[in-house]
Amino acid sequence: MKGISIKDIAQEAGVSPTTVSFVLNGKGKEKRISEQVSKRILKIAGKLKYKPNQLARGLRTGKTKTIGLIVEDIANIFFANVAKVVEDEADKFGYKVLFGSTEDNEEKAKGLLEVLRYRQVDGYIITPTLNLDKEIAALQKPVVLMDRYFPNIADSNYVVVDNFQGAYTAVSHLVEQGYKKIGIITTTSAQIQMQQRLDGFVDALQKHDLPAGKNVIKRLPFDLDRAGFIQEITQYLQQNKDLDALFFATNYLGICGIESIRSIGLHIGTDIGMVSFDDHDIFRLHSPSITCVAQPVEEIGRRLIHMLIAELEHSTEASAPQHVVLSLELRKRESSMPAVHHVNA
Amino acid sequence: MKGISIKDIAQEAGVSPTTVSFVLNGKGKEKRISEQVSKRILKIAGKLKYKPNQLARGLRTGKTKTIGLIVEDIANIFFANVAKVVEDEADKFGYKVLFGSTEDNEEKAKGLLEVLRYRQVDGYIITPTLNLDKEIAALQKPVVLMDRYFPNIADSNYVVVDNFQGAYTAVSHLVEQGYKKIGIITTTSAQIQMQQRLDGFVDALQKHDLPAGKNVIKRLPFDLDRAGFIQEITQYLQQNKDLDALFFATNYLGICGIESIRSIGLHIGTDIGMVSFDDHDIFRLHSPSITCVAQPVEEIGRRLIHMLIAELEHSTEASAPQHVVLSLELRKRESSMPAVHHVNA
DNA sequence: CTGAAAGCGCTTACAG
DNA sequence: CTGAAAGCGCTTACAG
């Protein structure tokens, strides 16, 4: 059960634990340990398969080489993909990832933060919920926000996408395809990323002199379940038969939207155009395939970890807050092609 | 930066760190600390927002309250869902989860195991790769395997599904629906779960006196990429035009299969029946929807964590190895209905 | 009823 | 060139 420690090596090598520690931490040269002793220690450590106890090291140095990753929902494909990249990249720098899902629930998020804090993680990557700003500010360790941020807090690091541009691009695309009465399905969430998507939608309509009034905007409570979303969207569609296209503010809404549209017998693309924010396997494979503005998942993950590591490795002077805003990519598919009649597989 | 410690509380309360530790660990009564002192300590701890340093505690007690979760791929929806449940359930017992993806690569898996080991995790939930048995046996801590196990190693705990039954059910369903020439698309993986799915397939055909020869079995290298799978499946279909139904041994293969079938202009369900192992959002939403045998994801996650916690909490005597084999549920959808012509949305 | 002391396994300033 | 010692923040056997 008990692992082998630095003492065991010291004993076998006939030197002190200090010397062993120096050699094993690559400070042999610097501390001018003789070649001979160094080699002997390394050999014994290898033979004994010595693995330093990270707990002891962490207690002493204050560094655990662990980062806390807080996402909205690890079972959501977007967050799962980001988590994968974060894990991979963190590994390259010798960091491990402790994760948790908030379900966008403030209390869950606060609990998570507390647990990670007293586990002494070195830094955090956080998808914040509403009203989490104070808790995050109190963290005393490097933090990088993702997916959303607090617009009124100047000094936070974040990696987000250009939600406004994404929505604007999506809606402009629908306009160019000839759709004229475009609605948005979004949530009541007051969070910045949702607000920006709505702004992008409205702005695109106005730029193209299309109606952007109240009745083309449908906000759903974000805590509905799948059936609830489908029901609400279906109802909205039935009450607004003049709509000829819809922009869905999240892929989750888009997926529910597919079911809603289908349930009332409309054909996507021909009867009603559709673009969703955020890609999903379903959108690519669906017949007809669904146009979307896709988030650069790989790059988001990479940027997050690199930004955090940079903070971690030279956190001596507080560097200026880093902001990365990535563009989304329009992926044109059949759901926004009114002219093309789709052949079913 | 420095957190507040037991010493700070001791000082403010005018008692020793020992007393503080006793009280904070709920051993006040047992150690017969006076009510008065206990209350004072608790009040001060609350005021100072004391959080025990888990590193120090772990170093002393040997317990980190952390479990290592090794999956094949956290970005795969099945594993992401299991991870979510594991995280949630672990949390209820005060455990946090450190995770990693193997990509089914032996070397990556070994690296992961090593890292988790020297981070002193209390126990492991592992989706093993091939040849990982020795490393796992050497772990010295409770382990529960998932998704697959080592048939030649008797004393391991695991939670798996009944792969044979699942495949058997899927194929029998196709037979009952009237399909007569059924093929399987699987991988060359030698792992137990894939072997059992193939066995279930063959057995079902034989029971129904249908041909189960070589040419209804297509094994693909499991390290192909998406395009490679699609190409291989397409080719196989073109060379075996007499097939009237396919059983896909994983949802990933099934998804590629949809694209392959579509690419050669066949209609799923009517031209060629289809059932996949393991559900996926795409299968539910696809037109036509895809029949599958679904894994009980929630229950898998719950069982895993409960089995591990049970080992953890009374690991004094080595209890008998626990084996849980869960059944899969046949979800009948349009892809296995030859008679019903599907109306496209 | 309470406390001094040892020890978990490291790292590092200090001394020689 | 090398080592003794302190200390990170806890827990717990032991003593009184």
Automatic annotation (TrEMBL), chains A, B:
GO MF annotations in UniProt: DNA-binding transcription factor activity; transcription cis-regulatory region binding
CDD domains listed in its UniProt record: HTH_LacI, PBP1_EndR-like
Pfam family, one: Peripla_BP_3
Superkingdom of the source species: Bacteria
Keywords, sorted A to Z: DNA-binding, Transcription, Transcription regulation
Domain HTH cro/C1-type span(s) in chain numbering: 2-55
This protein's record includes keyword Cell membrane: no
Segments forming domain HTH lacI-type: 4-61
RNA-binding among keywords: no
Protein name per the record: Transcriptional regulator, LacI family
Gene source species: Chitinophaga pinensis (strain ATCC 43595 / DSM 2588 / LMG 13176 / NBRC 15968 / NCIMB 11800 / UQM 2034)
